[in-house]
Specification:
The complex is a heterodimer of chains A (about 475) and B (about 500).
Chain A: H1 2-5, H2 7-25, H3 31-47, E1 55-57, E2 62-64, H4 66-93, H5 97-115, H6 120-138, H7 145-176, H8 181-190, H9 195-213, H10 221-228, H11 231-256, H12 261-283, H13 289-310, H14 313-343, H15 355-358, H16 360-374, H17 380-394, H18 398-423, H19 436-454, H20 457-469
Antiparallel strand pairs in A: 1-2
Helix pairs in contact in A: 2-3, 2-5, 3-4, 3-5, 4-5, 4-11, 4-14, 4-19, 4-20, 5-6, 5-11, 6-7, 6-11, 7-8, 7-9, 7-10, 8-11, 9-11, 10-11, 10-13, 11-13, 11-14, 12-13, 12-18, 13-14, 13-17, 13-18, 14-16, 14-17, 14-19, 14-20, 16-18, 16-19, 17-18, 17-19
Chain B: H1 2-18, H2 24-48, E1 57-65, E2 70-76, H3 81-97, H4 105-124, H5 128-137, H6 139-149, H7 154-183, H8 190-196, H9 201-218, H10 227-234, H11 237-262, H12 264-269, H13 271-290, H14 295-316, H15 319-351, H16 362-365, H17 367-381, H18 387-400, H19 404-428, H20 433-447, H21 455-459, H22 466-484, H23 487-503
Antiparallel strand pairs in B: 1-2
Classes of the chains: A mainly alpha (about 475), B mainly alpha (about 500).
């Protein structure tokens, strides 16, 4: 039973090693990509027998519950979508396929470990596995200065983040004598005299996680890293890595620090407002498509933080839905950017000019992604925002809901600049041939973005059981 | 039936997306065909419509997202059904009026049909979530219609329209959610919330204000109106017809359908504010319209002015004033598309100008078209016997008792309205064609350089074409019909208005 519970992780680890081996030994260039995709499919399949189970294994280090399952499925799906979108890009940019896909598989393994843990050490382990892979992935364009800068910056900031996290973790360990979230929960709700130390430890951990999700004021690295990293890697970091950090935040703060909710709720509210407002304001003035999407990612992280600021089960459920919806919009948009960069590697917003005429179906899909980012129906982004706003209004935080909706209206300014370039200019685009991987990812992502809104009931029921896991406040 | 009605245009838009873009005539005809289906369905429903019933008819209800209490819930009553009819009719005519569009016909027709689905959906949705979806769906195609096929400043006008109305509607969304939680019923069902929720007045005030913001931008109520002249002037004719004919009514419809029945205490408390805003709209819109040189801009401000009557009718909250407000909505939904059609297409295509001072003596140059324009202008200024007069008359009569002083000012607005319409007519219809032809030709030569508009050509312009006549005829017939026999509409309005007022507890 214990082995079955970590079967998805075992498959990811084995698959990653197989990709490395294929990269070294195989002669066919497609093998690593195919193996990586097969690994993600296998991991998704291995999740199926675990549904409905709630159990701990390996001395409480790993837990399988619907919350963990939701995120593991989300991460495997992210990996599965990133592989085909990366294929043509990796070929064209001369990235070594074996290393690239292996690191992606290991990064997803790290994310899965983070989601599946109720022990701070295990979360840290997963985080480091994810991060170290990401540092290398960000620098994969070896002859591009921006990419190298991204890698180094990400590494330096990441090292500092780890230090902050570890420091906070040790303070918390000091008062609870354990790294298990349940033990921490018992300790912080009982130990009155030590509450100050617990809160201090919590602040440090919050800063550490804040860096990972690129919340203002811990965001400085994000635009440069997302901009400089290879485009498929940026998609993985924005959709997967941030979601992994959110899964850890949810687990640690709602369960371990649940009794201290009064201390962190307001902080998350401030972070949410600062993050979305700054991200949107900065995105408005960008001319590079990737950099604009990087700031947009900051703004979107701000929306997700609203769920934490609200601090109710509805808020957490809304976060989960939003992260899932966000995955498809981000991966779809970056697939298009990666494809456009085959012809014009600068990845400017102007590359979108005239797409409405030259490739109407792709342009229509991009419109779906953009209105989903803004939060206009009928898209998953709308329903996600709807749930977040609903949670905020339900918790009597109408002001936060209003800040959020005003921000979405502002964000229309820059998301629509892409739409404007696609349809309202007469210039025709110089584009490379559409790789099959790109059209597959864009098509799937656009369909998912619409279907998640029109038929959300199964997902919502699933989320209902997932949000109960982390609804142990007070 | 209603699902078929609202989704036929969507299907049409998908069909058009699959057709080849080269065959423009085929695209136009397919679009027209798909827009005629809702017209036919509305006609069938009209025959079956029970005017005695006060409740919802043709109801469809399916659970959609039961976890949150969201349903797919449609129905029409006396308030929404006539709007549905106007929407179906004006969309068809707008598509017909857009047959002269040559650029990107495929996208244009697909967007017009998508827009129709959104507009029809707004008027039949009885679930807040569904209502909001249709409300927002309208935004996207209209952005493209203005932005791609509009005038020289189209991009600015399109994004201004988009961001203004988006901001208004997202704030409205917060209001809807507040309503959902304050009602404590766990449903987004509009009727259930209106009937069962008894909110305390403070909550009502706040929710009313949040919803007001969304509706006010759409109406548009002064000072939220500045997007409208830009959008109207830049939009292509078909877009202007739908903007003025239907989109503006979505705002006032929101008051009738949501704010008043659901938040009666707030509606009463804000009545005087609504009335004053209505009168400001009437007077301000008329004065600014009078100062315009651009024909389309004049009609745009005249729309702001006319929507003020609807607000005044709402503010007075008498059976007659409320029915009058609805009547103005319908009547303006017929007259303003006709005005825009003439300003943007019929006259513009011949004179190549929208500037009033550059036109003159159209009566002698194109007698039939000029007569029809005069008809539209008289309808718009409220000539008795035409629908515009009936609506304004009921509104003012109904509002006289509770809001005497406001009505007195509003009547001044009617005088102004008559004044600027007559000035416009004197300017462009009358005059001596031969005497000014030389000057006119000179203006054209350096201003627009349109070939074939020399002194000789200026005397006589091609008159109304068959297609233009077909666009105008149904509007004219309806305007006369409802002007002569207003009871046709009142009969449909009254049971619903009575039900609405009795739910609000009278005055």
């Amino acid at each position: 039973m214990q082995w079955l519970m970590i079967l998805p992780e075992i498959l990811l680890a084995a698959g990653g090693l197989a990709v490395v081996a294929a990269g070294v030994m195989g002669r066919r260039r497609e093998t690593p990509a195919a193996l990586a995709a097969a690994t993600f499919v296998a991991a998704l399949v291995a999740l199926w027998p675990l549904r409905g189970i709630t159990a701990e294994a390996w001395w409480g280090m790993l837990v399988v519950d619907s919350f963990a399952l939701f995120f593991k499925a989300l991460f495997a799906l992210t990996g599965l979508l990133v592989v085909p979108l990366a294929h043509a890009y990796v070929e064209r940019r001369g990235i070594h396929a074996g290393e690239f896909y292996a690191l992606i598989v290991f990064a997803v393994l790290g994310m899965s470990m983070m989601a599946s843990s109720r022990d701070l050490l295990m979360i840290y382990l997963g985080l480091e596995l994810l991060s170290i892979g990401s540092y290398v992935l960000a620098g994969m364009l070896k002859d591009d200065d921006r990419s190298l800068e991204a890698s180094l910056k990400y590494f330096l900031v990441g090292a500092m983040t780890s230090a902050l996290l570890l420091f906070g973790l040790s303070l918390v360990y000091g008062i609870s004598g354990s790294t298990h979230v349940e033990a921490i929960r018992r300790a912080v709700s009982a130990g009155d005299g030590w509450r100050g130390v617990a809160v201090a430890g919590m602040w440090f951990m919050l800063a550490g996680f804040g860096f990972k999700v690129a919340a203002v004021p811990f965001h400085m690295w994000a635009p440069d890293v997302y901009h400089g990293a290879p485009t498929p890697v940026a998609a993985l970091l924005i959709a997967g890595s941030e979601a992994a950090a959110f899964s850890a935040i949810l687990r640690v703060f709602t369960t371990g620090f649940g009794p201290l909710a009064n201390y962190w709720q307001a902080v998350f509210a401030v972070l949410a407002v600062a993050t979305m407002t700054y991200g949107n304001a900065a995105a408005l003035v960008q001319t590079s498509a990737k950099r604009m999407m990087a700031y947009s990612a900051i703004a979107q992280a701000g929306y997700v933080l609203v769920g934490l600021a609200v601090g109710t089960p509805e808020g957490f459920g809304a976060m989960l839905y939003y992260l899932l919806a966000y995955l498809f919009m981000v991966v779809g948009t970056f697939a298009v950017i990666a494809w456009l960069s085959l012809a014009r590697p600068e990845e400017m917003l102007d590359d979108f000019e005239g797409l409405g005429r030259s490739v109407p179906w792709v342009a229509a899909a991009v419109v779906i992604f953009m209105i989903s980012f803004i939060g206009i129906p009928p898209t998953a982004g709308f329903l996600g925002k709807f749930y977040l706003i609903r949670a905020a209004v339900s918790a009597d935080m109408v002001w936060l809901a209003v800040v959020m909706v005003v921000n979405s209206a502002i964000s229309a300014g820059y998301y629509y600049s892409i739409v404007r370039r696609m349809y309202l200019t007469d210039r025709s685009a110089t584009v490379a041939a559409l790789p099959p991987g790109t059209s597959l990812v864009v098509g799937l992502a656009a369909a998912a973005t619409v279907l998640l809104m029109l038929f959300p009931q199964p997902i919502i029921e699933w989320l209902g059981s997932a949000q109960q896991v982390v609804a142990l406040l007070r | 039936m209603l699902s078929l009605l609202i989704f036929t245009p969507l299907i049409g838009s998908l069909v058009i997306a699959l057709l080849p873009r080269e065959n423009k005539d085929l695209l136009r005809r397919v679009a027209l065909l798909f827009s005629l289906v809702p017209v036919a369905l509305v006609a069938i429903m009209w025959a079956r419509y029970d005017t005695a019933a006060e409740g919802m008819q043709f109801v469809e209800r399916i659970p959609w997202i039961p976890a949150v209490g969201i349903q797919y819930f449609l129905g029409v009553d006396g308030i929404s059904f006539p709007m549905l009819a106007v929407t179906a009719l004006v969309t068809t005519l707008a598509i017909l009026a857009s047959f002269n569009i040559q650029e990107r016909v495929k996208e244009f027709m697909a967007l017009m049909l998508l827009l129709e689905t959104g507009m029809l959906g707004v008027f039949v949705a009885l679930d807040y979530f569904l209502f909001y979806i249709f409300w927002e769906v309208v935004l996207v195609p209209m952005y493209f219609i203005i932005g791609i096929w509009g005038g020289p400043r189209r991009e600015y006008a399109a994004i201004k329209f988009f961001i203004y109305t988006l901001l208004g509607s997202v704030v409205m969304l917060v209001g809807i959610l507040a309503l959902y939680f304050q009602s404590g019923l766990g449903t987004f069902d509009m009727l259930a919330i209106a009937e069962q929720a008894r909110l305390n007045p403070t909550a009502q005030y706040w929710i009313f204000l949040l919803l007001f913001f969304g509706f006010a931008v759409k109406v548009p109520i002064f000072p939220f109106h500045t997007w409208l002249p830009d959008a109207h002037v830049e939009a292509p004719t078909g877009g202007s017809m739908l903007l003025a004919g239907v989109l503006l009514k979505m705002g006032t419809y929101g008051f009738y359908r949501i704010s008043y029945p659901t938040l009666p205490d707030a509606a009463k408390a804000f009545a005087i504010v609504m009335g004053v805003l209505g009168v400001i709209n009437i007077i301000y819109g008329a004065l600014v319209a009078m100062a315009q040189k651009d024909f389309k801009k004049m009609v745009a401000y005249s729309s702001i002015s006319h929507m003020g009557f609807v607000l005044l009718g709402l503010a007075a909250m008498t059976p007659m004033s409320m029915a009058g407000g609805l009547f103005v909505m319908i009547s303006h939904g017929l007259i303003s598309p006709m005005m825009f059609f003439f300003a943007g297409t019929v006259i513009y295509e011949r004179t190549h100008t929208r500037m009033l001072p550059e036109m003159s003596a159209l009566f002698t140059k194109m007698p039939v078209a000029a007569t029809l324009l005069a008809f539209a202008a008289f309808a718009n200024l409220g000539l008795p016997g035409l629908s515009g007069f009936a609506g304004e008359f009921f509104t003012l009569t109904g509002a006289f008792e509770p809001l005497t002083s406001l009505v007195a000012v509003a009547v001044l607005g009617m005088v102004l309205t008559a004044a600027y319409h007559l000035m416009m007519m004197r300017q462009i219809l009358m005059g001596d064609a031969t005497a000014e032809a030389a000057g006119h030709a000179a203006a054209l030569a350096h201003g627009h350089g349109a070939a074939g508009h020399g002194a000789a050509a200026a005397v006589r312009l091609p008159d109304l074409t068959l297609r233009e006549a077909i666009v105008s005829a149904p509007l004219m017939v309806s305007i006369v019909l409802f002007g002569v026999a207003p009871s046709l509409l009142l009969r449909i309005f009254n049971p619903s208005i009575q039900a609405l007022l009795s739910r609000m507890g009278g005055l």
